[in-house]
Design brief:
This protein is mostly helical. The chain is built from 5 helices and no strands. Helix 2 packs antiparallel against helix 3 and helix 3 runs antiparallel to helix 4. It is elongated.
Length: 109
């Protein structure tokens, strides 16, 4: 565990990166329209912290494991939406106008 704390104390860049990611994810999770994006950002962060907790025997393993499982569960609840965005092919939009909307004819001489 001391090695992990020395690692965190040594790398200010890593600490700022994780902190920025957590704050960004938290702000996105608060807004209902961006909650799925916030969860997508949050999941790799919690997985990273959970793996560190298990590898370095940090006592917060139960909390981080629970948060990771909750994040995975929330993504499973959004499976249909995520499948539509990432895996389904886009529907082609019709670009031509219906002929009944064009009423004026132009004569060119």
């Amino acid at each position: 565990m001391q090695l992990a704390w020395h690692f965190f104390g040594y790398s200010d860049t890593y600490n700022l990166f994780i902190a920025f990611g957590e704050i960004t994810a938290a702000l996105l999770l608060v807004i209902p329209k961006t909650a799925t994006l916030g969860n997508i950002i949050y999941l790799p962060i919690t997985v990273n912290i959970t793996i560190l907790d298990f590898c370095f025997e940090i006592p917060a393993r139960s909390v981080t494991t629970l948060l990771t499982c909750m994040s995975i569960a929330l993504l499973f609840f959004e499976y249909k939406k995520l499948k539509r965005v990432f895996f389904d092919s886009p529907v082609a939009a019709e670009t031509s106008l219906p002929t009944n909307l064009i009423k004026k004819k132009v004569n060119v001489q």
